[in-house]
From TrEMBL:
Family: Belongs to the SbcD family.
Protein name: Nuclease SbcCD subunit D
Gene3D superfamilies associated with the record: 3.60.21.10
SUPFAM superfamilies with a match to the protein in the record: Metallo-dependent phosphatases
Subunit organization: Heterodimer of SbcC and SbcD.
One GO-annotated biological process of the protein: DNA replication
Amino acid sequence: MRLLHTSDWHLGRSFHRVSLLTAQRAFLDHLVGTVRDRGIEAVLVAGDIYDRAVPPLSAVQLFDEALHRLADLGVPAVMISGNHDSARRLGVGSGLIRQAGIHLHTDPAACGTPVLLEDGHGPVALYGLPYLEPAMVRDALGARRAGHTEVLGAAMDRVRADLAARPAGTRSVVLAHAFVTGGAVSDSERDITVGGVASVPAAVFDGVDYAALGHLHGCQTLTERVRYSGSPLAYSFSEAGHRKSMWIVDLDGDGAVTAERVDCPVPRPLARIRGPLERLLDDPGLARHQDAWVEATLTDPSRPHEPMARLAERFPHIVSLVFDPDEGPARTLASYAQRLRGRSDQEIAEDFVEHVRAGRAADADERAELRSAIDEVRLDDTLHEVAR
């Protein structure tokens, strides 16, 4: 059986306030085309279909269109809710949608009930494990304690029990949304730490032929049978080095797995550049980033004048500006109170200017401006006091 494994669509998400709706639509066009042209027999979506619990209408419409297009192809799809989704909202109408071959698994109590498909080698049982928030599902799953490993282990016990009762030779696939030990994280994933431990061992999926994972945004192979597809688009600059893709997974008659990566369309490359403003504006080697979404980190000792506007002239798609001045003179570690003791308002103000500019002290004109401002504040305080 040929499966297409994807996850973490995050429909409705933007990139530094830039709408990604067009890019997400292009990805779904690509997905539908892959299903049609590559002989896909089932689509697996391992959670975080939406970016938030109450997605914008445009995202809901895009998802609705994708469901209709998959249903029109006659290819079944199995989808689970992730930690960004509202399981209850996503699951509304799932009974009716199932009749069109779209199987939305959002109820943790049903994790031991598979979608059964057939190919020329016999049955394949596909189990959907939605994101399991430990404190909320512990009792329903009978887990020993409210931890990620415990609740996912309890869910997998149900999967294995159901599988054991099925005819010999039944192949098995699990969809899960979790942080599995060994996976590489990015800045894009929402923290799911509970009790100090967010990850679960890959061994929790022992006993099934393939585990289609979601949550981490980088495409990763933990074992030949346990993989992340990653997100189809980059959602933070920490993903600048990712190759965005999906997995085509072939499951043979004995349950052996072979997998092929299929690249996703890239709406615009990401670039992280760093250095003093003037070098970023003049360096000919940075010309290749002029069509990219850019994050610029300025290392100037003080903030240059209108850096974003100046950078945008060269990099029209710059979306993020970070200030990280090179280290100035070493600072004393004396306490704040100790550093202020015996110092005048003027001296404190000048110290502040030097601090925020990483060691460059105020010049004569700036000291005069500070003195004038302090005198004006004192005059206002005096007038208020007289008025009382």
